[in-house]
Amino acid sequence: MLSCPMGLLPANRFNACAQKVTVAGAPVSLDARCPAERVSSAPMDQPRANEEFRRVLSGEEPGFERLRVAMKRIPSSPRCKLCAAPFEGAGGALLRHLGFGRFPGNPALCNNCITSFKKRGQMGAEIPVTLLFADVRGSTGIAEGMRPAQFRAFLDHFYTIGADTILQGDGLVDKVVGDEVIGLFFGGVSGPRHSSAALTAAIELLQRAGRDDASPTGPIPIGAGVHTGEAYVGTTGPQGAVEDFTALGDVVNTTARLASTAARGELLVTLAAAEAAGHPINGLERRSLEVRGRHEPVEVIVIRP
Hints:
Elements: E1 18-23, E2 26-31, H1 35-39, H2 46-58, H3 62-71, H4 89-96, E3 102-103, E4 106-110, H5 111-118, E5 124-136, H6 139-144, H7 148-168, E6 172-177, E7 180-186, H8 187-190, H9 194-209, E8 222-236, E9 244-248, H10 250-261, E10 267-270, H11 271-277, E11 285-289, E12 298-303
Parallel strand pairs: 8-10
Antiparallel strand pairs: 1-2, 3-4, 5-7, 5-8, 6-7, 8-9, 10-12, 11-12
């Protein structure tokens, strides 16, 4: 039975409290009511709703974890990174009709995970996150030596490597813009060891980009940064114009500065992120960086995969 906090399964789509459907020959019960609605018909108060959304995003909401477990029984991948609803196969075809299609602001999430909370006034929450930024080094010079269409094709190879590595590493692709790929890792998507997931993905990204077959012209020169801390995670953008699921805050800005500072083949990881990931730092190069806009320097380790 799929049970869902805060009414993630739209109650108006069902005639009874639970409806059995058959997916790939297996009966599955969809419970249209959230746990609070099964106890009481009274609406959830705003502070409680806000706290539940924070727990969902940080991976601390037991009811939502039960939903994920149930969703994983329905074929097939790829799935919503948050609730694990399938996007493909018979299960995906069924759930698309129930509002679980891909969210336009981030196709790794489903519409229902976003709209169900927005209807209750929740746009996001402050939670622990780890960010991965990766930039192409010398992209201006690379573009100068190529036709615009060739440069676009070159960047596509970088985008593909970055997106695949982040998604396979239990992260979300926050943005792909210009010569940069941004990965977002947090408890509700990546589990409690989101810092370790981000660091592992960053190392793999640099390794893949450094291979001779990374692009038709050879290795892709990139630098990257990883940092962890509190951020606002949720939907942003003017209503009716642009809608995005992203992270905002000092941790985001600092990670961006690290990536822009890293030389080709370098990964700069803050001590906070390395400690959270359990990554050994003995014997690694350390730097104290003056980051533009920050009063205090940032202590990092340098990894060259």
